[in-house]
Each structure stands twice: as structure tokens, then as C-alpha cells.
Write a structure and sequence with these properties.
The protein is an alpha/beta fold. The chain contains seven helices and twelve strands. The strands form three sheets. A seven-stranded mixed sheet has the order 8-7-6-9-10-12-11, with helices on both faces. β7, α4 and β8 form a beta-alpha-beta unit. It is globular. It binds S-adenosylmethionine (SAM).
Length: 259
């Protein structure tokens, strides 16, 4: 976990001043370091203001940071999965987002799992223009029957990508990783979303144990036990700027199957 910093943005002098752990850094505004410091504060401010609860995709609310959506789009376009499995449906926006990519690419379908799909959300997904790309399953993502149902919907040889965005406790994400990682094909990913929790501990709507009880910790523990996966953030397919790090709610989230 990172310690709190005092950040001063001096636009007139084009400098960002970061005071942290008794030292001061003066970062030129055109540096990746300045961008990183401001982004860290922006992420915290966005958490406190519930910024991610202000977006929709093709008519459905989607609870994601826009950069994370652009980045997962880059990965989906590169992997071109036959099946995208996502745990955590909520209003259905992310299912519709993935379905829209499947339609644009001309390949793929989406399986969404949620412990509770509320009737109005179920109806909205069932009536959506992209409904033919989507199957939903109601139940806990780690329940053996749910996992078995998902497995039965995937044909041998199909390329599979998995996104975990349901219950974000370390134990639950570890359970999901054990259940769904075997479905992921070599070169594809299982994504453990929302490790931002560690960075926002102490903020409103955060838990006292979020520094360790989060998806990033689950991902780390999982790769320690499973040599066929590595934590590897996919490289940006295009980057003519100075920034090399993503501004994300999903730090350390991408587990790539390498064997
Ligand atoms: C963060 S929301 C999902 C957001 C959605 N992926 C999006 O981008 O809009 C988390 C969802 O996980 C669901 N959930 C919680 N525990 C679960 C479990 N054990 N199994 C499956 N879904 C669960 C909740 O009902 C909630 O709808």
C-alpha cells in the first residue's frame, strides 16, 4: 500500500510538487512521474465521488473506469476469444460492452454470472439489441453447479478469456481463480478486477482489511501456486506519449496463461 502524500499542482510553473515520507519531489508537468502522482490523487477523488457510477454502454449502466474499458478492449481485440466469461453482471453494462466487441470483431459470445440478477436488469439484457451474444447464469460464481454449467457451455478448442468482477474479497477471488483459470486458453487472460481497494483503504466505503483482502493479493497468491500463469499487464498496442502505466482500478489484474 502507498502512504498518503501531499500533492500541489502549480499550473503556472508547470510543476507538480509531491511531499511524502518527509521528502519533497518537484516533478515537471510533462513527466510520467507527475502524471502518475496526479492520477493517484484523481483515482482517490474518483473513488470518494463514485465517479465510476456515472457511465453506461449502449443503454446499460457500466461500473468501470473508462480507461479500463479501453484497455480490456485492446486485449479482447488481440486475443479474439470465442467465449468471454464474466463474473459480476450488476446492471449488465459490461456484458453489453463485451457483446458489442464480439459483434464488431465478428467473433465471440459472452457468459455472465451473478449471484442475483434483478428482474429489471434481466429484462433489459433479454430485450437488448445484443442479446443474442449473451447468456446469463444466476448463482454464486464459485458454486460447483454454476462452474459446471459454464464449463458445459464451452466447446473443446475454443479460446476463452475470463473477467472476475463479482465479490472482491481475497478468498472469493482465489476461489474464482481456481474454478475459472483452467478454462483460460494459452495466450489468453483471467482478469482479477478492482485491486484499487488496497489504494483506497481509509476512504469512504472502504474496509479496514482492504490492504490485504483484495483481488490483487488473490492474483499474487494464485500465480505463486500455478506456474502456468503469470501476472503480466498487456503492453499498450499504441503509445506515442510519455505515460507507460495505466490509470486503473485493476492494478496487477491480468493473469496470462503461459503454459
Ligand atoms: C461490481 S458489480 C459488477 C459490475 C459489472 N461487471 C459492470 O462492469 O458493470 C459486482 C456484482 O457481483 C455480484 N456478486 C457478488 N457476489 C457474487 C458471487 N458470489 N457470485 C457471483 N456474483 C456475485 C453482485 O451481485 C454485483 O452485481
Amino acid at each position: 500500500m502507498t502512504s498518503p502524500a501531499t500533492i500541489t499542482i502549480d499550473e503556472a510553473k508547470s510543476v507538480v510538487i509531491v511531499k511524502e515520507n518527509g521528502s519533497e519531489r518537484r516533478l515537471p508537468m510533462d513527466s510520467a512521474e507527475a502524471f502518475s502522482a496526479v492520477s493517484r490523487a484523481w483515482l482517490r477523488c474518483g473513488w470518494d465521488t463514485k465517479y465510476v457510477y456515472s457511465f453506461s454502454w449502449l443503454g446499460r449502466p457500466i461500473i468501470q473506469l473508462p480507461e479500463d474499458l479501453i484497455r480490456i478492449q485492446e486485449v479482447i481485440y488481440s486475443v479474439k476469444p470465442d467465449v468471454i466469461v464474466e463474473t459480476g453482471v450488476a446492471h449488465g453494462g459490461s456484458l453489453i460492452f463485451h457483446a458489442s466487441l464480439c459483434r464488431a470483431i465478428g467473433k465471440g459470445r459472452v457468459i455472465g454470472i451473478d449471484i442475483e440478477i434483478r428482474p429489471h436488469n434481466r429484462r433489459a439484457i433479454a430485450e437488448h439489441e445484443l442479446r443474442r451474444y449473451i447468456t446469463t447464469i444466476e448463482g454464486s460464481s464459485t458454486h460447483p453447479q454454476v462452474a459446471g454449467l459454464v464449463r458445459s457451455m464451452i466447446d473443446p478448442g475454443e479460446t476463452v478469456l475470463v473477467i472476475l468482477d463479482s465479490n472482491h474479497t481475497k478468498a472469493h477471488v482465489l476461489g474464482e481463480l481456481e474454478v475459472y483459470a483452467p478454462l483460460v486458453t494459452k495466450g489468453s487472460y483471467i482478469v482479477a478486477c478492482d485491486g484499487i481497494m488496497a489504494q483506497v483503504k481509509g476512504a469512504p466505503r472502504s474496509g479496514d482489511d482492504w490492504d490485504w483482502n483484495n483481488p490483487t493479493e488473490a492474483a499474487r497468491e494464485f500465480v505463486d501456486r500455478h506456474q502456468d500463469f503469470v501476472i503480466e499487464e498487456p503492453a499498450f498496442p499504441f503509445n506515442e506519449g510519455a505515460v507507460r502505466e495505466r490509470v486503473t482500478y485493476w492494478p496487477g489484474a491480468f493473469l496470462k496463461r503461459v503454459a
